[in-house]
């Protein structure tokens, strides 16, 4: 086990800044996911920790050691990648023990370590199988076993489940959590899949354009996103965003007004340009909404497309009758629609006129210009408490 620290790590490739002044501290034994869209710098960050690339600036520590200029083999790490490179002509035992044999461990020690690792990844009895006799999931477990036998201080995993089918991926997530508990070791895990990050990690480091946006436990990222990027990236489907202006009685937007008392929300002032954010599950039909303290505003809308998911229905709401109802890919691009999630027994049809309201305790405001979160919850949160101010990103 070891803690891992990046101090002002920057990596430039010609005109691309792949990692931009990254400051992260990962605790001993912590499971941290680096998450963000493709090209945001996750793998490059990981490569600076692994020693596969040298940062242009900054320092990488593993434990108390400055490893910035150390070779990968001297860093006490083991890596598992998306593309599982097993030797096709070697059986499982030989694949798993390959690195140990190179390091001339004695036979007894090799056997002990391989058997222990095989038990952890549940491959006992398969040690004489050849890679082409195994499923994708089993091959991935061989790759993990190969990392385990090295007894590393830190596991680095870069999209290790990306090539597996959806069902197996979900199963392997559980296995990795079990593995983490059992080995009690530091794991740094790269994924573009926010659901994977949400379900497995102690903390998520959300990265955009090479910059750390927020590092917090999954539910903190979900409930108190530090900025618009995190709010839009974490959670599926994405949070609704609507631009508006704070006025004396609440918020004015192009298609609706919300009533709340800005005096109770010291983070904003009358005249401020903001972006309101609300998740689909916090938009409710007025007819269904519970206690009035939390609900803010009555928004008239017309239902457009309905997507029954089994356990809930996603309802696309058109706020402007003139609107064509084009399904914008980018939720920020449309001011004319809201996505609502309702229970599966809700009786709705396309084209219904409905009134909806928002859960004020889960309605966020972001600075319209910088995108930074101003407040999470603008009404009805434990009495008149307007909610908590966000913590600084990169703390
Ligand atoms: P991610 O893992 O989040 O998909 P990467 O870390 O692979 O992102 O890449 C971050 C950025 O750095 C991208 O713009 C990518 O094109 C660029 N990049 C990564 N590796 C290299 C390289 N060896 N040479 C030039 N540019 C690179």
Automatic annotation (TrEMBL):
Alphabetized UniProt keyword annotations: ATP-binding, Cell membrane, Membrane, Nucleotide-binding, Translocase, Transport
Entry's localization field: Cell membrane
Superkingdom, taxonomy of origin: Archaea
Species: Natronococcus jeotgali DSM 18795
InterPro entries listed in its UniProt record: AAA+_ATPase, ABC_transporter-like_ATP-bd, ABC_transporter-like_CS, ABC_transpr_MalK-like, ABC_transpr_MalK/UgpC-like, Mo/tungstate-bd_C_term_dom, NA-bd_OB-fold, OB_MalK-like
Name listed for the protein in its UniProt record: ABC-type D-xylose/L-arabinose transporter
Similarity annotation: Belongs to the ABC transporter superfamily. Carbohydrate uptake transporter-1 (CUT1) (TC 3.A.1.1) family.
Function: Part of the ABC transporter complex XacGHIJK involved in the uptake of xylose and arabinose. Responsible for energy coupling to the transport system.
Catalytic activity annotation: L-arabinose(out) + ATP + H2O = L-arabinose(in) + ADP + phosphate + H(+); D-xylose(out) + ATP + H2O = D-xylose(in) + ADP + phosphate + H(+)
Enzyme class at the top of the EC tree: translocase
GO biological process, one term: carbohydrate transport
Principal location: membrane
GO cellular component, one term: ATP-binding cassette (ABC) transporter complex, substrate-binding subunit-containing
UniProt xrefs under Pfam families: ABC_tran, OB_MalK
Domain ABC transporter residue range list: 4-234
Membrane protein topology class: Peripheral membrane protein
């Amino acid at each position: 086990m070891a803690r891992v620290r990046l101090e002002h790590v920057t990596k430039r490739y010609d005109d691309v800044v792949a990692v931009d002044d990254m400051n992260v501290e990962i605790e001993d034994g912590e499971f941290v996911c680096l998450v963000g869209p493709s090209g945001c710098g996750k793998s490059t960050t990981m490569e600076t920790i692994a020693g596969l690339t040298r940062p242009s600036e900054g320092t990488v520590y593993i434990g108390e050691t400055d490893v910035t200029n150390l070779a990968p083999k001297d860093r006490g790490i083991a890596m598992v990648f998306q593309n599982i490179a097993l030797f096709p002509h070697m059986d499982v035992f030989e694949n798993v023990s390959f690195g140990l044999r190179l390091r001339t461990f004695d036979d007894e020690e090799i056997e002990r370590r391989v058997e222990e690792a095989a038990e952890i990844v549940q491959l006992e009895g398969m040690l004489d199988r050849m890679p082409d006799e195994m499923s994708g999931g089993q091959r991935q477990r061989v790759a993990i076993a190969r990392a385990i036998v090295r007894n590393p201080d830190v596991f680095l995993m870069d999209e290790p489940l990306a090539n597996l089918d959806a069902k197996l991926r979900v199963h392997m997530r559980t296995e990795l959590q079990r593995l983490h508990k059992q080995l009690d070791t530091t794991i740094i895990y790269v994924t573009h899949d926010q659901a994977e990050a949400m379900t497995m990690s102690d903390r998520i480091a959300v990265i955009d354009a090479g910059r750390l946006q927020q590092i917090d436990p999954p539910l903190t990222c979900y409930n108190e996103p530090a900025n618009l990027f995190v709010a839009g990236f974490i959670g599926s489907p994405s949070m609704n965003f609507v631009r508006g202006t704070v006025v004396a009685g609440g918020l004015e937007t192009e298609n609706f007004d919300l009533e709340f008392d800005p005096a109770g929300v010291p983070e904003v002032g009358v005249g401020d340009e903001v972006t309101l954010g609300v998740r689909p599950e916090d938009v409710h039909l007025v007819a269904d909404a519970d206690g009035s303290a939390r609900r803010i505003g009555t928004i008239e809308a017309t239902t457009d497309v309905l997507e029954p998911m089994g356990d809930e229905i996603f309802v696309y709401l058109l706020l402007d009758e003139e609107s064509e109802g084009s399904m914008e890919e980018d939720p920020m691009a449309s001011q004319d629609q809201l996505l609502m999630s309702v229970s599966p027994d809700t009786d709705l049809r396309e084209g219904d006129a409905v009134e909806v309201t928002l859960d004020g305790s889960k309605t966020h405001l972001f600075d319209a210009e910088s995108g930074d979160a101003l407040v999470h919850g603008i009404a009805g949160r434990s009495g008149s408490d307007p909610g908590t101010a966000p913590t600084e990103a990169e703390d």
